[in-house]
Structures are given as structure tokens and as C-alpha cells.
Amino acid sequence: MHTFIKDLSNKVGEEVTIKGWLNNKRSSGKIAFLEIRDGSGFAQAVAVKDSLPAEVWQGIEKLTQESSLEVTGKVTKHPKQEGVFELQVCKCAGVQVASEYPISKKDHGPEFLMDNRHLWLRSKKQWAILRIRDTVETAINEYLHSQNFIRTDSPIFTPNACEGTTTLFPVPYFDLGTAYLSQSGQLYIEAAIASVGRCYDFGPVFRAEKSTTKRHLTEFWMMDAEAAFVEHDENLKIQEGLVKAIVKKCLENCQQEFSALERDTVALKKMLDKPFSHYFYDEAIKKLNKLGSDIKYGEDLGNDDEGLLTKDSDVPVFIEKWPKSIKSFYMKIDPENSDRVLNDDLIGIEGAGELIGGSQREDDYNLLLERIRHEGLSEKDYEWYLDLRKYGSVPHSGFGIGVERVVRWISGAEHIRECIPFPRTINRLRP
Ligand code: 4AD
Ligand code: MG
After folding, report:
1. pTM for the whole thing?
2. Which of 174, 387, 408, 422 sits at 20 to 30 Å (Cα–Cα) from 295?
């Protein structure tokens, strides 16, 4: 049995074996410092030529960066750094001596790194982002279960659009014609709430948008949540609770990841104690115009607008009740203003942009049918969805959160392509 690097602190004075990869090596010819990673963490192993059999020392000299290896030695406390543990090597065996590694310590351009994504994933920063992503996903699952949601999941091959018909990826589907890769599982979990009350799906969704921003992928992971008997205001409370639960868990579990990323977490800590801000869409437009944006009434917010609106905010900002003309057919009309819908976008701080899109859903059969016809959608395609308004319709609401958007914000990554193991964008399909 070998030991994980993260557990070395409990093994001081013992002889252990760790198995992993050589991240870096420095050698004076008499003493070698091996920086080793095993996935659970990073540790330094110290090899002293004079205290090792000649063949062990020669083996160490041959090890190149990224060689896989097994090292045995006594665990000691680092002489100067608190909380850091080292291995005093007595045995060291290469598993495979790596060829010359294409990613060196010098700066590489993003295209080169993305071409080598299969290797780049090993770098300390990418390792940290992968681990933050895992923590974000775990936090989402835990929070939703604590709020009585269960996971039901939605199909990826779908016969029709959820979020408008312009951004779909078509796939030939046997004798049944064309299937489309799902843009959101929302419509399906709306069906499942009548079975389980509150539910969520979690998986990849696809958008054929020709966006080249730092926040758009063509394949990304979304969590859609849906709850029966929840109306607009409570929907926002659930979203706020979720975002805070994610940040809290990352702050608790990801300190070494944040330090690997040199991520200052003051802003994350600060937002936990305060309620999120709210603007109605109309107010947001007025405020943006005052701040110098030329956005017009009835337009969607651009990246710059989102940035402007949140630049002095310590907390994420909800923009509520948008014009129905620019939002999806399934959103419930605001009873107080028939041009508006009961929806929200949640805009993150620190330039995170839109993190969540949510709404109360139209639960009246006739109104929903009218919206479907008005949008020119096929009534037949949405027959099953309309059925949900015929057999025990209830007020209900839900939202979708983009996992990579959240990971980008929390990790402080510059570009969303670093926030998913193998990104798919308009100009990248490999590796
Ligand atoms: O706002 P959106 O389009 O909402 C929906 O799809 C709803 N059906 C969700 C629901 O109510 N269940 O997408 C939700 C979130 C956005 O707020 C954003 O975080 C993320 O998905 N997102 C993207 N992330 C990466 N790349 C893209 N191209 C994205 N488009 C949306
Ligand atoms: Mg949206």
C-alpha cells in the first residue's frame, strides 16, 4: 500500500512509499530535490548521493520531468516551511522515464497549451482548477439535496429546442429524422416535478453560438433545477442559497488550490455575509444609461453592460422581470405587467458575467399555447409539454447554472476554456 501526499502530515517519522510523477528536479550532483505530485498534492523528496546505493542515485539522475516513479523514504517536516512535509529518499524507482516534455517552464501561447491540453492538465494551476470544479459540483449536489431536490437527469438527444431554434446542433437520427443536442434539460425536469416535487439534472448541454468570448463554450455543463409550488421570489432565494453554498464549500476545501492559483479570496468571503442585490430590468437599463452604456430598452445586456452594472458591487446582482419579447416562451407573464416575465438573470461579481438564468414557468395551458404559437414553434413538438398544464398543473419555477462560468469566477481563471477538462469552442474540437 502506498501513501497519498495529502496524508504525509500524519506520517512524520515513518517510512512510506509515494507513487506519482516528477514535476521538477534540481540536482547539485551530490543532492537532488525531486518535486513529486500524485494528484492529491505536491511534495519534495530529498535524495543524497552518499547515503544511497550507486544504482539508486544513477536511476535518479536519469529521471526526466514527467517521469512516473515510486519513491520510498522517511517523512520529515520541512525545516523552514510550516505545514510542508518532505521525504528523505532511501529507494526510488522510475516507472517510465518520460520523453522530453513539450511544455516547459517558459511561457507558451494559449493555442499551444490548448493543442497540448492532454498534457497541460497536469500543470499545478490546471490541477487546482480541476479540483475547484469538483468542489463546485459536489457543493451543488449537497445543497440541492439539503433543499429536498433529487437528481433526475434529462436526455441529450432531443427532438426540439428548449432555448430558441437558432443555436442547435443537429444530429442524423436513424429513420426518425434529425435529433438536436440538448441546450438545457429544463423542459424534461418540469415533467419530473409532478413525480418527485423538486428535482435537478446535471450534464453537458450544447449551443451552436458563434461566440468567441472568454465565457462561451459550445459544450458546457449545466445544472437545471425545478421545483413545484415555488414562485418567483422563492426561486431567487434558492439561487442565492446555492451560490453562497458553493462559495462557502470552496473556501472551506480549496485553500491550497487558491494559493496555487494566487487567487485572492477576500471578495468571495465578503459576499457570504450580505444579501444579493436586485434590479428590475427597467431599473437596470436606466442605471446602465446613467453609467454611460448606450443599451436600449428591449435589448439584452452585453458583457460590458454586465461588467458596468456589477463593478462596484460586493455581491452578485439579480436582474428581474425582463421584457417577454427577448425571453423564452415558457416564462410566466408578470401578472402586474403583461409585457414582462417573471424571470431573473444572476450576474456575478469580479467580471464573472451571467451565472444563472431562471424563471417562474407559465402554468396555464391556454397562455402557454398562445406563447408557443406566437413564437412560431410547432404545437405538435410541444404537445407533451403542454400536457403538463392539463394534468395537475401547479405554479413552479426553476433555473440553470453554468458550471464553467462559476468555476471561472471562483478560480479566477482568465478564460472559460480552462474551466472544463477538454473545452469545445467554435474553433476547437481537439484533443
Ligand atoms: O440562461 P440560460 O440559457 O438558461 C437556460 O438554458 C434555462 N433553460 C435554464 C433553466 O431555467 N433551467 O443558461 C443557463 C446558464 C447561463 O446563466 C450561463 O451560466 C450558462 O448557462 N451558459 C453558458 N456557459 C458557457 N457557455 C455558454 N455558451 C453558455 N450559455 C449559457
Ligand atoms: Mg441566460
Report:
1. 0.96
2. 408
DSSP letter (8 states) at residue 215: T
Q: Helices marked H in 101-153 — which ranges?
A: 110-115, 117-120, 124-146
| Residue range(s) defining the domain that contains residue 16 | 5-96
C-alpha span between 131 and 120 (Å, rounded): 15
Query: Ligand 2 centre and the CA of 321: distance in Å?
Result: 13
Q: Which of 150-164, 389-403, 412-426 has the lowest mean pLDDT?
A: 150-164
First to last CA, the chain: 34
Q: What is the CA radius of gyration of the chain?
A: 26
Ligand nearest to the CA of residue 353, numbered in listed order: 1
Q: Which ligand is nearest to the CA of 163?
A: 1
360 lines ligand 1 (CB under 6 A): no
- Strands 219-228, 170-172: pairing is unpaired
**Ligand 2 mean position to 325 CA, how many Å?**
14
pLDDT digits 0-9 by tens, 65-123: 999 999 999 999 998 988 889 999 999 999 999 999 999 878 899 999 999 999 999 99
Distance 149 CA to ligand 2 centre (A): 22
Q: Which of 66, 96, 126 is the last residue of a domain?
A: 96
User: How far is the C-alpha of 239 from the C-alpha of 400, rounded, in Å?
Assistant: 9
Mean pLDDT of 138-147: 98
Residue 107 in any domain: the answer is no
Regarding whether 267 and 132 lie in a shared domain, the answer is: yes
Angle in degrees, 0-180, between the axes of helices 281-290 and 303-310, rounded to the nearest 10: 90
Q: Which three cell numbers stand for residue 220?
A: 458546457
Residue 95 CA to ligand 1 centre (angstroms): 44
Number of residues written out for the chain: 431
- Give all strands (DSSP E) within 268-321, no chain letters: 277-280, 317-320
Domain boundary among 96, 130, 160: 96
- DSSP code, position 339: E
Those residues whose C-beta lies under 8 Å from the C-beta of residue 417, and which sit 6 or more positions away, are 110, 114, 217, 423, 425, 428
Ligand 1 atom nearest the C-alpha of 207 is: 28
196 shares a domain with 66: no
Residues 244 and 346 in one domain: yes
**DSSP letters along 403-427, please?**
HHHHHHHHHT-SSGGGGSSS--BTT
